[in-house]
Amino acid sequence: MNKPFNPELLKIAHQPVPDRRASRKKLFIALASGVTLAGFGFGAYQVFVASKHVTTDNAYVDADAAQVTALTSGPVQEVRVVDTQSVRKGDILVVIDATDRRLELSQAQAALGDIERRVQGYQANDTALDGQIMARQADLVRAAAELARAKIEYERRKPLAGSGAVSGEEMTSVKTALDAAQAAYDQAEANLQGAKGSYQANNVMIAGLPLEQNPEVTAARFRVEQAQVALNRTVIRAPVDGVVVKRSVQVGQMVQPGTPLMMVVPVAQAYVNANFKEVQLKKVRIGQPVELTSDLYGDSVVYHGRVTGFSGGTGAALAIVPAQNATGNWIKVVQRLPVRIALNSKELAAHPLKVGLSMDADISVSR
């Protein structure tokens, strides 16, 4: 049985068949264009942006903390600070009992006074001995004159003794007088030499210097100053502005010189140690600007700093137990080198940081 003719079927039969290959080709072209544009964009970013910056999130706040130690011995009398307390340079941190140090100072001062009086005695003896030398010189002159007179008398009578003009008794008397004059002269000369020796010995004690320059007095004054310094060191003051950390001292504790008491961290002078990979440091130079952000404040606070130096070795090389790369199972690992970055003091004062906080660092290497 024949079906009736449907004109709609004729229209469908004459419609064009879609070209799927052409559509697929257009899609590939669009995809290739997108990849090409992305490649060009990435290349442009690397050339004009990324190549001029090196970044790392392996960066931390650091500061040169001041170690506070005892410089003299004694029991701790007072502790005036606690951990986390802010202090100014010169603030009193700890007071050590000063009784022993005061006694040592008094003893040193008494010893100084005794030595000064002794040296003053040397100086007085110096004047007396100088006068004694002058007296001995006068005695020697008189003895020399007596000896010369006795020699003349003896020489005058000696030729006459054989002719009987001068008696033997007189010659004996003259000879005795000559011997006595010679002995007196020798004694006067010995006395003069002894006075000069005493003068020289005394002069060695005072070294020909005034009292304040005498070596004994200078040494005694040094001991007084040393005792005064030890007394002053019973009051321990903050060496820098900062925050107290690691306080370990307690009232009543017996401390010795070198005993660690606490640390003061100068947070206002904090800097950043950024650990860059060795492959990032080719263009990094001292003085280049750095932008930093901290995890504490987020991206809303940007710090501006400058590169001030590079560590002398990588963290692995300077570790307590460094890596032994000479072993047979060695695997190369990219090393990191600490780079020191100074922070802007005004920005640091406006947004304080603490030691150990994490930072992100971006160095502009285009300059």
Strand order of the largest sheet: 1-10-13-12-11-14
The biggest beta sheet, please?
Answer: 6 strands, antiparallel, barrel
At the fourth CATH level, what is the homologous superfamily of the largest domain? Helix Hairpins
Q: What are the low-pLDDT stretches, counting only 5+ consecutive residues below 50?
A: none
Summed up:
This protein is an alpha+beta fold and 367 residues long. It is 43% helix and 23% strand.
Structure description:
43% of the residues lie in helices and 23% in strands. The chain contains six helices and 14 strands. It has helices at 7-13, 20-48, 99-157, 168-206, 215-232, 345-350; strands at residues 53-62, 66-69, 74-79, 86-87, 92-96, 235-237, 242-245, 254-255, 260-265, 271-277, 289-294, 298-310, 336-343, 358-364. It has a six-stranded antiparallel beta barrel with strand order 1-10-13-12-11-14. A four-stranded antiparallel beta sheet has the order 2-9-7-4, with no helix packed on it. Strands 6-5-3-8 form a four-stranded antiparallel beta sheet, with no helix packed on it. α3 (99-157) runs antiparallel to α4 (168-206) and α3 runs antiparallel to α5 (215-232). The chain is elongated, with a radius of gyration of 50 Å. The mean pLDDT is 83.
Keyword list:
367 residues; alpha+beta; Elongation Factor Tu (Ef-tu), domain 3; OB fold (Dihydrolipoamide Acetyltransferase, E2P); Helix Hairpins; 3 domains; 6-stranded antiparallel beta barrel; 4-stranded antiparallel sheet; 6 helices; 43% helix; elongated
